[in-house]
């Protein structure tokens, strides 16, 4: 049986094994998928052991995405742009390849939610790895511009410089007055029940507020957006399932239907 896994640290809470087992069942694919705990400095050894034991591919999560990026021999353009790898596999010539499906997952979920991406002006909050990974796929999906706002403005500027002039940056106090149709929270503020601290005037034209985090309870950002009458607010559970589906398709050549898996996830996670 072909073996797959998710590597991370911590990894016990990961929903990926469940999601991929449901995908395998749905598509009739015979495979195993497990969670493997690995420290950053032991990841390369852990991966080699896994391959020696029949491992065909893996997902990589926090804090190993940059280590996986460094380990991969061939890196896709979108992983290059993200500076991070969340999907590993070995190609037919035996080379270790790294890809990144996080941005594809976000775009797929925004489309599922009915967001109009073509020509949209996007306000993206946060300038860490999660933010950097989604800018390229948003542009590729046709958005007109992305403004990256971050608590530490310098970090936002550094990320924006990786892209063309469609991408601008500032601190939260200097967000330009514009019609932001889509506001996406890519900060980890939700982990501490906080939200990015900016003026609600920037939500005035917002059709969809999206938090890349998810949990049993709505995040502070989602609650705040609801309070300010944003018509549609969603958390990152759909992105999680959609990035997994894109990884599954890379490994197996079959794209699973995310809808039934998302329904099961929603009843389990919430
Ligand atoms: P990730 O890989 O999840 O992006 P990261 O690289 O550590 O993690 O980045 C965390 C992001 O969340 C940063 O943009 C951080 O802002 P700073 O760069 O100013 O530190 C942001 N962040 C974390 N906690 C926050 C909070 N309470 N309010 C606003 N932004 C927060």
From TrEMBL:
Record's protein name: Shikimate dehydrogenase (NADP(+))
CDD domains the record matches: NAD_bind_Shikimate_DH
Top-level class of the enzyme under EC nomenclature: oxidoreductase
Protein's organism: Rheinheimera riviphila
Domain Quinate/shikimate 5-dehydrogenase/glutamyl-tRNA reductase: 115-189
Catalysed reaction, written as an equation: shikimate + NADP(+) = 3-dehydroshikimate + NADPH + H(+)
Positions bound to NADP(+): 77, 126-130, 150-155, 212, 236
PANTHER family, per the entry: BIFUNCTIONAL 3-DEHYDROQUINATE DEHYDRATASE_SHIKIMATE DEHYDROGENASE, CHLOROPLASTIC, SHIKIMATE DEHYDROGENASE
Subunit structure, as described in the record: Homodimer.
Active-site residues per Swiss-Prot or TrEMBL entry: 65
UniProt GO molecular function: NADP binding; shikimate 3-dehydrogenase (NADP+) activity
Coiled-coil region list: none
Binding-site residues for shikimate, renumbered to this chain: 14-16, 61, 86, 102, 214, 243
A Pfam cross-reference name: Shikimate_DH
GO CC term, one of those recorded: cytosol
Keywords: Amino-acid biosynthesis, Aromatic amino acid biosynthesis, NADP, Oxidoreductase
Biological processes per GO annotation: amino acid biosynthetic process; aromatic amino acid family biosynthetic process; chorismate biosynthetic process; shikimate metabolic process
Domain of life of the organism encoding this protein: Bacteria
Domain SDH C-terminal, residue spans: 236-263
The enzyme's E.C. designation: 1.1.1.25
Location of the Shikimate dehydrogenase substrate binding N-terminal domain: 6-88
Functional note: Involved in the biosynthesis of the chorismate, which leads to the biosynthesis of aromatic amino acids. Catalyzes the reversible NADPH linked reduction of 3-dehydroshikimate (DHSA) to yield shikimate (SA).
Family: Belongs to the shikimate dehydrogenase family.
């Amino acid at each position: 049986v072909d073996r797959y896994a998710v590597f991370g640290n911590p990894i016990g809470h990961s929903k990926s094994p469940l999601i991929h087992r449901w995908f395998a069942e749905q598509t009739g694919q015979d495979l195993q998928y497990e969670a493997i705990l690995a420290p950053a400095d032991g990841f390369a050894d852990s991966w080699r052991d896994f391959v020696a034991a029949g491992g065909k591919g893996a997902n990589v999560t926090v804090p190993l995405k940059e280590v996986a990026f460094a380990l991969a021999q061939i890196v896709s353009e979108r992983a290059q742009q993200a500076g991070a790898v969340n999907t590993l596999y070995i190609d037919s010539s035996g080379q270790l390849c790294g890809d990144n499906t996080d941005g594809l997952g976000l775009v797929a979920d925004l489309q599922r939610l009915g967001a109009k991406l073509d020509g949209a002006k996007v306000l993206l909050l946060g300038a860490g790895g999660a933010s950097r990974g989604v800018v390229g796929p948003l542009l590729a999906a046709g958005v007109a511009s992305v403004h990256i706002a971050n608590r530490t403005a310098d970090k936002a500027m550094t990320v924006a410089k990786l892209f063309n002039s469609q991408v601008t940056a500032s601190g939260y106090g200097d967000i330009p007055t514009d019609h932001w149709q889509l506001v996406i929270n890519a900060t980890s503020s939700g982990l501490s029940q906080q939200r990015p601290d900016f003026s609600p005037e920037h939500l005035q034209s917002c059709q969809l507020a999206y938090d890349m985090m998810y949990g049993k309870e709505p995040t502070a950002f989602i609650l705040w957006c609801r309070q300010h009458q944003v018509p549609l607010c969603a958390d990152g559970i759909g992105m999680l399932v959609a990035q997994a589906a894109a990884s599954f398709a890379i490994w197996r050549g079959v794209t699973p239907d995310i809808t039934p898996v998302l329904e099961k996830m929603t009843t389990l996670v919430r």
